[in-house]
Amino acid sequence: MDVGDFRACHPIDPFVLTDAMIIKKFLSHLLAANALILCMFVAEVSGECLDQRSEFVLRLQEPLSGRIDGQSLRIAIDLVAEIPNQPHRHLNVWVDRKVDPDAPVSPGELGPTRYQSLVKIAEASGCVVFPVDNCLLFGRPAWVAEMADKLLSQSARINRQNESNNSSRHLIDVEWPDLTTPKEAADLILTQIPFSAPKSLVSQVRVQMRGGDLPHDLWPACRLQSVSPVTAIALVYGQFAKFRTNADAQSAFSACYRFAGLKAKLEPLVTSDPTINVRAERDGTVVTATLGVHQELCAAVLAIEPREKIANAGASEPDPLKRLQADKRTFSLTVADQKAGAVLAKLFSTGGVEFKFDASANPSLSKLVSFEAKDQTLWQLVHLIAEKSSLKIRAHEQVLLVTPEGN
Question: DSSP characters for 130-190?
Fold first, then answer.
């Protein structure tokens, strides 16, 4: 489906008529009418605000660390997006179908947050990532820019049409298994729309489906949680949109932000690029800029403030082994053919404990280890590697001493 066809699918906005009626009826109150029109225009292009108070943003800012080298892109994304046995912490990551999910990626050190980890994975795969409507678009810059623009525009249109209906009540959860076709995915989305959804919302879903039959394809398993059905359908059809050139990624689009201290974070961006447009609105600050600028702004507002070296209950414990065991932070880590000593050194450094490798442990420290671990504490990871490499770890004079098993 051509991009032009995709745009042609959108119906004429009924608020155009409303504006005309307002202007005709209240022509004498020109300033008030113009203010109303401007407000409507901004709402049309800004969409849902990225809000620091939302659960979505809080999940993006959750701390995460680890290292990924040589894993497939699909596995790397899943390690960040999924937290075992905690579905409420799931991140909706929608990957551009033109990106090879089985290609190996080596972003190296992840963190300090889940969002920044996905940014690093995207950079390592020649992609970009951008948050829109409770989802993270992950793919080619032109595709992400075009999809972000469409999703934000349609979100604003729906919010205006359903202002009295509280459209947040009509979010859906949808999931499909491996080898699902695009048509099957779209059909599943339709079945999740609640009967209480307003007609205008349902009509917008139908609008997204006017591009014709979906091509046959086989998709991996996917779960979208707390998303608008219009967004979900647009994501499915957007996988087959065609883009003219990579210059599409340089087109400006508008997004809304609601963060404390936003002005200070915007100042250096506006100074370096005078084409950036910033407008303060009732629901937040609307920024019109290229994808690159929006990415820089997201990186700034989604960053977390530096914490103390160790943020755990055992930070004052003098025994390094007890301190490591008391650290209750959890990590997801994928290691492929890495030397045990190198992995242990990184884990000890993350825990803020001093360590020493005994010379007799060199053969074991040189062993290559491979494993995948999700939501494990530092001590659990260290213990796993020690078992795989026949190593013993104990406290000795306020440092961790690593020796061969049996010593």
Answer: EEETTEEEEE-HHHHHHHHHHHHHHHHHHHHHTGGG-GGGG-EEEEE-TTB-HHHHHHHHH
pTM: 0.67
Structure tokens at 29: 């109150």
At 226, give phi and psi (nearest 5°): 55, 55
- Report which of 276, 273, 271 is spatially closest to residue 254, judged by C-alpha positions: 276
Burial of 164 from C-beta contacts in 10 A (0-12 / 13-18 / 19+):
exposed
| Token pair in block for residue 347 | 């884990």
User: How many Å apart are CA 397 and CA 36, to the nearest integer?
Assistant: 72
Supply the pLDDT for residue 68.
Answer: 82
Nearest one of 177, 173, 183, 252 to 216, comparing CA atoms: 183
- Name which of 374, 392, 406 is nearest 86 in CA terms: 374
Distance of CA 16 to CAs 29, 40, 205, 237, Å?
A: 18, 10, 20, 27
DSSP 205-220: HHHHTTT-PPPP--B-
Q: Which domains does the chain have, with CATH numbers?
A: 3-301 (no CATH), 320-404 (3.55.50.30)
Rounded to 5 degrees, what are φ and ψ at 273?
A: -140, 95
Q: How confident is the model at residue 197 (pLDDT cuts 50, 70, 90)?
A: confident
Q: Give the whole-angstrom CA distance, residue 63 versus residue 117.
A: 10
Beta carbons of 56 and 132 less than 8 angstroms apart: no
Indicate the burial class of 397 (C-beta count within 10 angstroms; 0-12, 13-18, 19 or more).
exposed
